[in-house]
Amino acid sequence: MRKSIVLFFSAVLAVTTSFAQSNINIVPRPVKLVASKGSLDLSKRAAAIDLSGADVSLAMFLDEFLKSKDVEAGRDPKTKGYPVKLTIAKVDTLGAEGYTLSVSKKGISIQANTEAGLFYGIQTLIQLTPLKGTKLPYVEITDYPRFAYRGLHLDVSRHMFPVEFVKKYIDLMAKHKFNRFHWHLTDDQGWRIEIKNYPQLQSTAAYRNGTLIGHAGENPERFDNKRYGGYYTQEEVKEVIEYAAARYVTIIPEIEMPGHALAALSAYPQLGCTGGPYEASMKWGVFDPVFCAGKEETFVFLEGVLDEVIGLFPGKYIHIGGDECPKTSWKACPNCQQRIKAQGLKDEHELQSYFINRIEKYVNSKGKQIIGWDEILEGGLAPNATVMSWRGEEGGIAAAKQKHTVIMTPGNWCYFDHYQDTSKTEPLSIGGLTPVREVYTYEPLPAQLTGDESKYILGAQANLWTEYIETPQHAEYMAYPRACALAEVVWSPKEGKDYINFLQRMETHLQRLKNWNVNCAQHLVKEIEYLKNPQTKK
Ligand code: ACM
Ligand code: ZN
Prior knowledge:
Elements: H1 2-15, E1 32-41, E2 47-50, H2 57-68, E3 73-74, E4 82-88, E5 99-104, E6 107-112, H3 115-128, E7 135-143, E8 149-155, H4 163-175, E9 180-184, E10 186-187, E11 190-191, H5 200-205, E12 207-208, E13 212-213, E14 222-223, E15 228-229, H6 234-245, E16 250-257, H7 262-267, H8 296-312, E17 317-321, H9 328-331, H10 334-343, H11 348-365, E18 369-373, E19 386-389, H12 394-401, E20 406-408, H13 411-414, H14 436-440, H15 451-454, E21 457-462, H16 472-479, H17 482-491, H18 499-515, H19 523-532
Parallel strand pairs: 2-3, 2-4, 4-6, 8-9, 8-21, 9-16, 16-17, 17-18, 18-19, 19-20, 20-21
Antiparallel strand pairs: 1-7, 5-6, 5-7, 10-11, 12-15, 13-14
The chain binds acetamide and zinc ion (ZN).
């Protein structure tokens, strides 16, 4: 790795003569931006927000922005001052999320086909304002996303995060034009969503009796012996959904099955092959006890859970997990073996496929679609499933070739629980090394796919697993600025992708993140310093 960093810096020297400064530093980079001489001084006049038929709730974001610059904003178009116009227009090239933004002496105008487009225009407008002062450069921007699915994930099972932080995480996503929040709500270490029909999920499955200290590979294992847990009430879940919706972020809830089920089994042991007893796990890994695929009771439970989840989340997708399900307990279970026989299945992989197919049918009957991790390919893909490719790109490639939609989250580029630097001072992590530059270079469309097959790649997502991440501050440190790099991967055009240009914009953007109270990792500061002054000792 060190070797590639050295090579990288030599390459930089070859192509960069100076570190160009610009007063326009939008992240993610817009499709087209033409700046002209002059600026609109927000401090001089009041602003009249003209919504032209756009949703009033958008004015909240504009108000907030204008107030932060001490600008009096009024809704009355007759107010003397420059106009801020938000217009729903019909511009085919902008699609469902694009916008145009114009800043000129006439004022500020944002046009889009949709409210979401206007929202993204406002986000760009916020980034267009200098950190200090109130002068908006004259500019004409046309912008729209490269991918429809632009996601970030957060694991709240291994460690739980307060509602306020979940909202902040979503708000930061929206500022970077992400539109899908994958909420990993259940796993072996804790069940985090209230399910009213199954109260023991709250009283038992939401808690574990302690947590591993140090890395999972350490011997002997040590535990803190502190009861740990909690869950989000349905009222809190609704609050988060509403908060996300106002920012055009759709939440994808994940209910893990058939593996990663120890917490649920601790509450309802009859759903496991042996009947238990089971305990919510205090350590990290993959565990043999899973939901029994032979008992009807398992499906009654999961359908009951899904009924409530589907009732809460308005989005089209429910993530049903499907990853890392050992087949050990199914092999030894008379009920599972009976199911294999009765269904004429070849083996336990086909039993997993039976499980996912059955759940898919149920979810589809409720008008929703399933997403599963790439293991759902094994034993045969459920007919309408979307595959989340995490063990590399292969699962995504195979699924796209089978004409299934795909979300790319390959570990090498998209696992934000990996280390981001080789320094010994980095906080303990699961392992791996995924620096910002690596994320930036990610290309979600694999070369192995034809143009037609590529259409099945909906987009990409980064995952933030939290075995080693206990606090919101630490979560932010792992997510930012890597999420800024991913935002460019999923939003900005492939043409013109340029890491040096990204770093140039990140110098200002890092300051913005600080102003937004983000505990952002600072490794780029050194890289930027080196670009500005190649004599700097690294
Ligand atoms: C995963 O990282 N187990 C999907
Ligand atoms: Zn079983």
